[in-house]
Amino acid sequence: MATIIAIDGPSGAGKGTISRALAAKLGFKYLDSGALYRLVGLAAKRHSVDLANHIDVSALAAHMDIDFRTTKDGSLSVFLESEDVTQELRTEETGALASQVASHKPVRAALLARQRLFATAEGLVADGRDMGTVVFPQAQLKIYLTASIEERAQRRYKELLAKGENVNLPALEEQVRSRDERDMSRDASPLIPAEDAIELDTSELSIQEVMDTVLNLVYIKGLAN
Ligand code: C5P
Q1: CATH code: domain of residue 55
Q2: CA-CA to 65 of 20 to 30 Å: which in 45, 130, 210, 221?
Q3: Nearest to 184 by CA among 11, 57, 50, 35
Q4: Is 43 inside any structural domain?
């Protein structure tokens, strides 16, 4: 059985950074499941599909032409219909589209099979909201990363400032709050820790400290040498 490490939690908790570094360290594949929901949102926008139209949005989720490529420097580029959409995928606007399409059950069902294809013999680090609860309930290690809303908004603020974007901290806090609310209160796969997940609050921890804690768990579970 493929080794799977599921890393779930709200946006801004550090899942992406930790999951990518962990996959690189262990030589495992990496699944950024949020990117799949973002791609559905973006594809719907580009094809002028109404987000409330569950049938058409789920058809896009099942059939959209996407590709994940690892560049020479190890970073991940994402393509939609052969166009590099890596930057556009990360905007707050695309995140909001993603969280709207993510509440549709048929969209989640269409993406389920696509996500499971990432689990191969080389091992997988899967990052998302329902990796440990729905997509990979058999994962050998499940981690639920959290951080306070203030800290997550602060991290996003620094990230956007560094990119030279014009940002407003209270507005970011509000966005984080409303995305949490939508992700946690939806009927379809709401964001909740799996019963057997290990919860880790990263508010006061550096990336290195989180990484050390997670790696320690990987070794304790005997998932790598
Ligand atoms: O992780 P990321 O911020 O890229 O995810 C974007 C949105 O996609 C989330 O706010 C959530 O609504 C949705 N999502 C999800 N299930 C996942 C991953 C992401 O519902 N496994």
Answers
A1: 3.40.50.300
A2: 130
A3: 11
A4: yes
CB atoms within 10 A of CB 73: 5
* Model pLDDT for residues 122-153, shown as the tens digit of each residue: 999 999 999 999 999 999 999 999 999 999 99
Domain interval for residue 43 = 4-216
Digit-coded pLDDT (tens) for 96-112: 899 899 999 999 999 99
In the chain, which residues have pLDDT < 70? Answer: none
Point out the ligand 1 atom lying closest to the alpha carbon of residue 37.
Answer: 8
Sequence-distant (6+) residues with CB within 8 A of 90 are none
Q: In this structure, is residue 221 part of a structural domain?
A: no
Task: Provide the b/e sequence for 31-66 (b: ≥16 CB within 10 Å).
Answer: bbbbbbbbbbbbbbeeeebebeeeeebbebbeebeb
pTM of model > 0.85:
yes
User: Is 222 inside a domain boundary?
Assistant: no
Protein residue closest via CA to atom 11 of ligand 1: 99
User: What is the 8-class DSSP label of residue 74?
Assistant: S
Judge whether 186 lies within some domain.
yes
Query: To test ligand 1's pocket by mutation, which of 103, 105, 129 has the most ligand atoms within 8 angstroms of CB?
Result: 129
